Amino acid sequence: MTAFDLPIPSHFDPTQVGTVRRVPYQDIATAARYWAKLHSLKPAAGDKVRIGLLPIDCQLTFCGKDFELFVAGRSGNGAIDDTRRLCEFIYRNLNIITAIHPTLDTHVAMQIFFDIFFVDEAGNHPTPMTMISRGDLENGTWKVNPAIACTLGVDYMLLQHHVLHYAGELEKCGKYLLTIWPYHAMLGSIGHALVPALEEACFFHTQARHTQLGLEIKGGNPLTENYSVLQPEVLHTINGKPIAQKNTRFIEKLLKYDYVIIAGQAKSHCVAWTIDDLLTEITAHDPQLARKVYLLEDCTSAVVIPGVVDFTDQAEAAFQRFKDAGMHVVNSTQPLDTWPDFNL
Asked: In the CATH hierarchy, which fold is given to the domain comprising 14-108+184-304+311-338?
């Protein structure tokens, strides 16, 4: 196998990345099969060097400007530019990407990071982007909404103890404070879907290389945040009982690839925590495996809401830590034969 840049198919329109539209699957399938013959692309099952691409949460809820949590970055156009470059990367490297595993952040209304979960003494809910510390819960600034306990079928005092434990665990582990997010990535919504331009590129890849798209669902547990696709933010209750489990199956799949390439949204949150969890697993197996992980720095942006929050510095610090551990921070436009430690 050799690395070479394929041309980008004519159906791809970079000006339409981030828009909502229907993917014409049958037409794309026909075009992809023609493309495979034209460029002598072989089925991915025969790849001697296996490369997994992990696009994290490239959904309309994060990547569409009119949606709930558009990841603007400091440029103001972050996730759209990132997705355009990621689509182009997939098309140019169809011949070497073995499989694509997009993650899908997936939520329902009653979850610990949505405003309905908490109330103040007057019964008001916190506004989006409120950060709730353990101290806020101890002093009564916020408490669990009693109606939530009924809905979830959990004893109210037990749920109150849970959120105290949960907020404390986040602080003890050096993670972000419990954040109240705008409703986003709601299961069944348009915002939950992959950006159509990326969905189209992924589908084109499945048809050109005869490989299945490996979608990974995360985020549905009502009692924990789940930035990382590999595990939730907090694994156990105050009594040591499991809240949720590691995604051991997917961890093992990623570790079996010769190379793993990571992109997506947001650099400061779901991307950073997924990489952090992957690095933890790598360190436990063999720290040298970090050198087979490549982070597409120009295909990811931090959460920035002007005048409210800016997580850019935290994102940059995390990527520097990953680089120091042996992972490679690269750009999607770099020729792959110039990537360090990358040998086909």
From this structure: Rossmann fold (3.40.50)
